[in-house]
Design goal:
Blueprint (H helix, E strand, L loop, with lengths): L7 H32 L5 H41 L14 E4 L1 H20 L1 H15 L13 H13 L5 H32 L10 E2 L5 E2 L11 H5 L26 H8 L5 H18 L6 H9 L1 H10 L10 H15 L6 H19 L5 H25 L1 H15 L13 E2 L8 H6 L9 H17 L6 E5 L2 E3 L1 E6 L5 E6 L5 E5 H9 L3 E3 L5 H14 L5
Parallel strand pairs: 1-4, 1-9
Antiparallel strand pairs: 2-3, 5-6, 5-10, 7-8, 8-9
Helix pairs in contact: 1-2, 1-6, 2-5, 3-5, 3-6, 3-18, 4-6, 5-6, 9-10, 9-11, 9-19, 10-13, 12-14, 13-14, 17-18
């Protein structure tokens, strides 16, 4: 979908911030120099000499570094505008050919440092970022603040700072050292800058947007839901439900208020009339409320919500025949809903052909389920199996498309482990293997007064945990990982015969990453890699219903 061009106010905001960028970098560099000088007393003679050279280099090249910093912010802002307008180059079939690079452990060290910088700024400027986000959302027309449209958010600032650091005429280890010493000052300067930007936008007459509250057609509100790993016992919750037809003065609405018309609850009453006893009517009430809570969860994509809402009536009829519906995640009804929602979330691009195929299959299955005169668990179990078959075929198609890359990576893995040359020419230019300086641990850990020296036992425990984590991964598993200065959600496509090279495929594009085992272990140890699990929409809905029942006003 192509969005309207950005407003003049938004473009003016970008230009104003870019004009201030050189001053921001100058303040950050000055803070880094002060920190470096403070720490020199703790260093040996060789390290003091190296720090002196770094300070001298910063002073000599500061103007050029500020230009690099500003240029990086400008490029990132332009890329954001292209993405917002829908004019970004296509990454799906028919678009540009994806590139592949082998991610080494030394390269991961940069990602770890970037993540620390981003997290530090996010933590220290949380309030200012939230306020500015509302103003920027208003300028781009996102009145519900559904996304962060600020092109100068901490991720962009950290990447720009690293771009400037790389322009320093020194080794990679000292470039990272400068990055680390700059983080605290960057957070302080950006916090002040974000607050000042909000004040300027307010003085320009920009009315801030408000965080999302969407009114659904039935009158209920879509909310952000409740993040919890606790799932209430549905059988116990059933006992707290009012039973339809047992109420003296009309049906209850979902929010606990009585309504003479009943609205959507008419279908609930129709199903309740078929219930043989009070307990079954309570179960119908509970399942109905659970579906209402699911379809008002704003974290579920709208196209998935439409599918789930169509299962509302069939699910209540199923409840009368199958008490196992209250078995939470074990029942195929909930497994089907969770699986479709999860896989749609892993491929967030609505134009992605594979996502469209998935939802088209899901719609066909929902049509079949709704047409069944008798609702049984076997109908939903068959739907789950068909979705799982589709996902296996989709994975096979993705792997087949990467067959050339996989073959080249397998050769590279054997050469690397057998002591051969694993350089870029090995794969005919397809794989770019960066040659990077190894970052000495003593320099990285002893440089900052705020850091604690490396705990060898903790390091070994982290390595062991990372190795154990890799052992749990299977081809087809989705992971969340910080690569190239940003969070991505790729799927594991292939593991080398000797377990040294792992190929990951992005769910939002055709991008792939070939990552060394050591790099994955290091990312996991830094809490920058984890396995994604299917979210329990039912668990969040049950928790929400339980809270509403507990706080229902006395009648």
């Amino acid at each position: 979908m192509v969005r309207p061009p950005p407003s003049p106010a938004f473009l003016q905001y970008i230009e104003d911030e870019l004009l201030r960028a050189p001053l921001v970098f100058d303040q950050v560099a000055e803070g880094a120099v002060d920190q470096l000088r403070k720490n020199m007393a703790r260093l040996g003679a060789a390290e003091r000499a190296a720090v002196s050279d770094l300070i001298k280099s910063l002073n000599i090249h500061r103007s050029h570094l500020g230009q690099v910093y500003t240029a990086s912010l400008r490029d990132q802002a332009a890329t954001d505008r292209e993405r917002e307008s829908g004019n970004a180059p296509a990454d799906r079939p028919g678009g540009r050919q994806p590139t592949l690079s082998l991610v080494e452990e030394d390269e991961v060290a940069v990602d770890v440092e970037l993540s620390h910088t981003i997290e530090y700024v996010n933590t220290h400027a949380e309030h200012e970022l939230r306020e500015l986000r509302m103003y920027v959302s208003a300028m781009v027309g996102d009145l519900d603040v559904s996304a962060d449209h600020n092109p100068f958010r901490p991720e962009a600032q950290a990447r720009a700072l690293w771009a400037a650091a790389q322009a320093l005429p020194t080794s990679r280890s000292w470039q990272m050292h400068f990055m680390r010493q700059s983080t605290a000052t960057l957070a302080t300067v950006l916090r002040q800058g974000y607050a000042a930007a909000s004040s300027r936008l307010e003085s320009m007459g920009v009315e801030p947007a408000s965080y999302r509250t969407v009114i659904m057609p039935g009158g209920s509100r879509r909310s952000a839901g409740v993040e919890t790993t606790y799932t209430p016992d549905l059988y116990r919750m059933r006992e707290t439900m009012p039973a339809p037809l047992d109420e003296a003065s009309g049906p209850l609405r979902y929010d606990g208020q009585r309504s003479p018309s009943g609205g959507r609850r008419e279908s609930w009453l129709e199903v309740a009339r078929q219930a043989p006893n009070h307990q079954d009517r309570q179960a119908v009430e509970l399942v109905g409320r659970l579906f209402e809570a699911i379809v008002t969860d704003e974290r579920v994509p709208s196209d998935v919500i439409l599918l789930v809402s169509r299962l509302h009536g069939p699910a209540m009829r199923l409840t009368l025949r199958d008490s196992g519906v209250l078995d939470q995640q074990a029942h195929p009804l909930w497994r089907f809903i969770h699986l479709v929602a999860y896989e749609a979330e892993m491929a967030p691009d609505v134009a992605d052909p594979e996502r469209r195929r998935l939802l088209r299959l899901a719609r066909q299955l929902v049509d079949q389920i709704s047409a069944e005169p008798e609702q049984r668990a076997t109908v939903y179990r068959r739907a789950v199996h068909m979705v799982e078959d589709f996902l296996r075929q989709r994975l096979q198609r993705r792997c087949a498309g990467a067959a050339t890359q996989i073959g080249a990576l397998q050769k590279l893995e054997h050469q690397v482990l057998d002591g051969g040359d694993g350089g870029p020419d090995t794969l005919g230019g397809m794989v770019d293997l960066p040659v990077m300086d190894t970052v000495p641990a003593d320099i990285l850990d002893a440089a900052s007064s705020a850091e604690v020296p490396t705990d060898m036992a903790g390091h070994l425990a982290g390595v062991a945990a990372g190795q154990a984590w890799l052992a749990t991964l299977e081809v087809g598993t989705w992971v969340r990982i910080f690569l190239g200065g940003r969070w991505v959600q790729p799927q594991l496509l292939w593991v080398g015969d000797r377990g040294e090279v792992w190929l990951l495929g992005d769910g939002a594009s055709d991008s792939t990453w070939a990552v060394r085992r050591g790099a994955l272990v290091r990312l996991h140890a830094a809490k920058l890699a984890k396995t994604l699990k299917v979210r329990s929409l039912l668990g969040r809905a049950a928790f929400k219903v339980q809270q509403q029942v507990a706080t229902k006003p006395a009648r």
